[in-house]
């Protein structure tokens, strides 16, 4: 508006000058110029004042915007704080139904129903648990068990270093830490990791995990140990020594170390050593050492797994059942997945295990499994396999299964 007024004043000056009947004198013209200059100065002063006012209004508006943004941030934080408990809670699980038609008998069993519960306290600290019902029905005289397989706090120091405290899976083997039914071939878990390692195996303790680079990692675990019977048919059997952290005897601890190495894409190698200071928790003072190595290779649809595990028990006390001073097993399993989404898979497995390996007269249990998986979705699977035992075993037949995880 002020600019328009200024232009109008200058135009009026020009019109007046051109419309005069006689040419004004220099003095009259100078007076007109001075008068117009005053008008121009006044208009410029008014323009500057309005610019100053406009700037003040702009600053006030900017301050109001900042205040509104701060208010929005406060409300957003409040909303996030109220919604965090829900966002931080994690839930999952898995389950598997089996039908076994073997020489030892026919059976249908909902083998496992498992729920995962977790909670993220913050970006670095979380809680994780695994609650399991085995064989569908638990109680006095019932076949099932209710078990707490995992319940630990995990703290992340940085992207490559973390520690755990609580009930955790022992870092050993292939299946012990990853055993959801959609992740492996065969209806039943393999005999070696069941009877020698023995999966699923959990203890109470503190763990440390370090990933040095994209190839090498280290896991350490100081925990409660096994407590095997010292007499009877199950004396010194490794699987019978699991205490499952249920009022477990803890006079002697276990020390576990695992090194992980991924030399090339698709190939995973791992080796675990564990020392049990006393496998009988004070009854006979029997130290024991476990050594286990495994390899997993995946290239396209082709897969290959292999594992070897061996226990050495201190036999100085001369009270160990004949042969059980050494217990060992191994298996090799090639497989191939095909189909548009690799939803079909076939496998074969050759396994050998012996819980009396120190006895030259004890026969190894040899088993051959062949079968296929069909993944209806990436985490729901239908399974079939045929098993044939020889030497130390004679339980032949076929198995059907369905499993899921989420």
Chart the SSEs and their pairings.
Layout (H helix, E strand, L loop, with lengths): L1 H18 L6 H63 E14 L2 E16 L4 E10 L10 E14 L2 E9 L21 H5 L6 E10 L4 E9 L28 E9 L5 E10 L11 E12 L2 E12 L12 E13 L5 E11 L10 E13 L2 E12 L5 E9 L1
Antiparallel strand pairs: 1-2, 1-16, 2-3, 3-4, 4-5, 5-6, 6-7, 7-8, 8-9, 9-10, 10-11, 11-12, 12-13, 13-14, 14-15, 15-16
Organism: Marinicella litoralis
Protein name: Phosphate-selective porin O/P
Keywords: Coiled coil, Signal
Explain how this protein is built.
There is one protein chain. The chain is α+β, with helices and mostly antiparallel strands and 406 residues long. The protein has two domains: 2-79; 168-405, Beta Barrel (Porin). The chain contains three helices and 16 strands. The protein has a 16-stranded antiparallel beta barrel. Strand 2 (105-120) and strand 3 (125-134) form a beta hairpin. The chain is elongated, with a radius of gyration of 39 Å. It starts with a helix and ends with a strand.
